[in-house]
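Hi everyone, sorry if this is the wrong subforum. Our group has a chain we'd like a structural model of before ordering constructs, and none of us has done structure prediction before. Sequence below.
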Amino acid sequence: MNVHFLQHVPFEGPGAIEAWLLERGARIGCTHLFESASLPDPVGLDLVVAMGGPMSANDEGSLPWLAEEKRFLREVVRRGLPVLGVCLGAQLIASALGARVYPGREREIGWFEIESLPPAGDAFRFPERATVFHWHGETFDLPDGAVHLARSAACENQAFQIGEKVIGLQFHLETTPASARALVEHCRDELAGGGSVQSEADILAAPPERYADLHALMGEVLDYLTRSPS
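Answer:
Right subforum, don't worry. Here is the predicted structure as tokens:
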């Protein structure tokens, strides 16, 4: 399996996704967009993962590589490649496919529950309820043709699927204790003020079993995206 990550800041890496891939002998490449916007040839890729980041999907004026990344995402979706978007990555997929990205009604940062939507066809099915990790202030409209997979109390569009091979997650299933600490360290200023925002102490106090549940669900999503065609 040949997998390529699109990483937007040094402190939001693949987390638990990398461990899942290494267990399966995957070849892993990464474009560090904060250093270079050199994107790979889609030919030969088996999975593309667009990670999170504190910037907006609308920041093309100050970050022109966002436009190139959106063109790349449109192309890999058009080719029918498996694509996973995480937080900003999901917003970029939505934007690349013509949907609007905009500030949510409140920030959602910390461990909060998502609720799955009634299943549609053979789309991925989340548990009826699951506690997952969030760190976002923006949201998105669903792209045309997308299946709505999950919502939360603070954010209606938490997950979507396009066709059989594209999933966007507003939340983070890849988070590890180390990556949670890195987010707190680099984005601590976002914990001030209102919204659905937990304290630094509450975020970092999550027990090991919560991360284990998170990573098990991440594995299910990856199994679904990389399964052999039926």
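For your construct planning: The helical segments are 16-23, 65-78, 88-96, 177-187, 200-204, 208-226. The beta strands are 2-7, 27-32, 47-50, 83-86, 101-116, 129-140, 147-152, 159-162, 166-169, 196-197.
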